[in-house]
Amino acid sequence: MKGLIIKNQNGYFTIAGPEGATALARSRGRTKRKGSILVGDWVEYEQTKDSAPSIVSVYPRINELHRPPIANINQLVLTVAAENPDPSLFMIDKMLVLAEYSRIPGILLCINKADLNPEYAEKLQTLYEKAGYPCIAVSAIQEKGISQLKEALSGPVISFSGPSGVGKSTLLNHILGREQFAHQAVSQHTGRGRNTTRHSELVRLMDSLYVMDTPGYTSLDLDSQVEDGLDYLFRDFRPYLGQCRFNNCRHLKEPGCAVSRAVDEGCIAQSRYASYVSILNEIKNRIIRY
C-alpha cells in the first residue's frame, strides 16, 4: 500500500494510508539501511493480520528542506506579520530564494496581523505581487481573510513557514477549526516570537490535504553552487536575464546590465535588488544567517 509519512517519533512512523486511515510502522531491510525517512515522504508499506506494518520502499522526492527535515512540499505558505514582530524584507527574500531553490511548486505569501498595520500590509502585498508571488493579507485575531487563505491552499502537502511569532499556529488553528497547534505571544523583551513548534508533523485538513507548521527558521543554508543561478531564483529578474551585454553578468556594476536598468526604471524593487546583492555576498563568504 502507498501512504504518506505524517509523523516520526524515534523511528516509529505514522503513515496516512488509503481513505485517511493511519498506521504506525517501522522501516525494514534495505529501506532501513538506506538512511532517513522524512515527514512528507511517500512510502510503500505492508500490513498483514499477523505482523505490524513495515515500510518496504520510499518513493522519489520532488523536493526536500533540511531545517526542519521535510520532503515533498507541494505548497509553501510563507507567513509574515505586518507588525509585531516587524517583518524583514531581507528575511522574506531569503526564504523565497530557499523555496525557489528547493523547487517547491507553489509559493504563497501570507501577511498576518494585517489589522495592526493595514497600510504596511497593503504595501507588502503590492511589493511581492509585483515580484510574481500571490499574496493574501489576513487577520487571525479578527478572522478576516481566513476563508480566502483556505481556498488558496493546494496540496496534498502544505507547509506553513516563517519567523516565530507571526501567528502560523494561530492561523492553522483557525483553518482546522480546532486548537491543534500551541502558540505564544511575541516577547516584549526581544520583540521576537518564541518558537512553539518543536517537530515536523503533518495534520489532515480535509480529504487528502495535509498541513504542517514548521518551526521558525533560524538559519538559511544555500549551497555555494547557487551563486551562478541566484539571479534566476528571483522571479522578477527572469524577464531581463539573457539581455545583459555580457553573458556572465552578475548584475552588480557591469555596464549594459539589463537587471540594473530594470531597477533604475522601477520595474524591479530596490529592496529586492538589495537582497540579491546581500545574498550573493553572503554565499561568497559562506555565511547565510538571519
General description of the model:
With 290 residues, this protein is an alpha/beta fold. The protein has three domains: 2-58, Beta Barrel (OB fold (Dihydrolipoamide Acetyltransferase, E2P)), CATH 2.40.50; 64-213, Rossmann fold (3-Layer(aba) Sandwich); 224-285, Probable gtpase engc, domain 3 (Ribonucleotide Reductase Protein R1, domain 1, Orthogonal Bundle), CATH 1.10.40.50. The protein has helices at 29-34, 89-101, 118-130, 146-152, 168-176, 258-264, 270-285; strands at 2-9, 12-16, 22-27, 42-48, 51-58, 64-66, 69-71, 75-81, 106-112, 135-137, 157-161, 202-206, 209-213. Helix 2 crosses helix 7. It is globular, with a radius of gyration of 21 Å. Mean pLDDT is 87; it is low at 186-197. It comes from Allisonella histaminiformans. This is Small ribosomal subunit biogenesis GTPase RsgA. Its cofactor is Zn(2+).
Order of helices and strands, N to C? Answer: EEEHEEEEEHEHEHEHEEHH
Number of helices: 7
Task: Find the CATH superfamily of the largest domain.
Answer: P-loop containing nucleotide triphosphate hydrolases
Which class do the helix and strand fractions yield? alpha/beta
Range of helix content: 10-25%
Number of domains: 3
Provide the residue-averaged pLDDT. 87
Based on the coordinates given, report the CATH architecture of the largest domain.
3-Layer(aba) Sandwich
Number of strands: 13
* Rg, alpha carbons: 21 Å
CATH class of the largest domain: Alpha Beta
Strand order of the largest sheet: 10-9-8-11-13-12
Q: Assign the CATH topology of the largest domain.
A: Rossmann fold
- The share of residues in extended strands comes to 15-25%
